[in-house]
Design a protein that fits this description.
- This protein is of the alpha/beta class.
- The protein has one domain: Rossmann fold, CATH 3.40.50.2300.
- 41% of the residues lie in helices and 15% in strands.
- The protein has 6 helices and 5 strands; from the N terminus they run H-E-H-E-H-E-H-E-H-E-H.
- The chain has helices at residues 15-24, 50-63, 73-82, 101-110, 126-135, 147-158, and strands at 42-46, 66-70, 89-93, 117-121, 139-142.
- Strands 2-1-3-4-5 form a 5-stranded parallel beta sheet, with helices on both faces.
- Helix 4 (101-110) links the parallel strand 3 and strand 4.
- Helix 3 (73-82) runs parallel beside helix 4 (101-110).
- The radius of gyration is 16 Å and the shape is globular.
Amino acid sequence: MVNGDAFRDDGDTPPDVAQRDLMARGLRRPAVEPFARTESGVILLVDDDTGARTAVRRILTRAGYTVVEAVDGRDALDHYVRMIEPPRGVILDLTMPVMGGTACLEALRARGSVVPVLMISGYDAEHEASGSARRGDARFLQKPFSARELLGALMETLTPT
């Protein structure tokens, strides 16, 4: 996946675009926006694809999260150890140079981290993530996904079962 191709258009329109469209038609903003800021906390976002990372960051920021970005697993671990408090969750791409998602997750767990992890991939990698999912170490979301699917999967990941 390159240049933000991680997403499908499911009809979600970012608020700035939606507001301009409504104003052009002489209408007011709806009472509830699809990207209302309802969430909080820090999410560590790990993806080597700059476009995908930017798109996910924008979605998460609009939802109310603070996002710390890392370009690969090694960079993610460096960020993680410098954090004063652990992030609320980690979104972790499976296939990256230097250190991939599975190795990064294993390193986090070896350090005693229990932070919730949502693994993502544009490749057919569900089988690779399935072992982690069975152990309860992570959830998996296949790219491409919509903003609504991303936020739903993240909420499921962050909600204790």
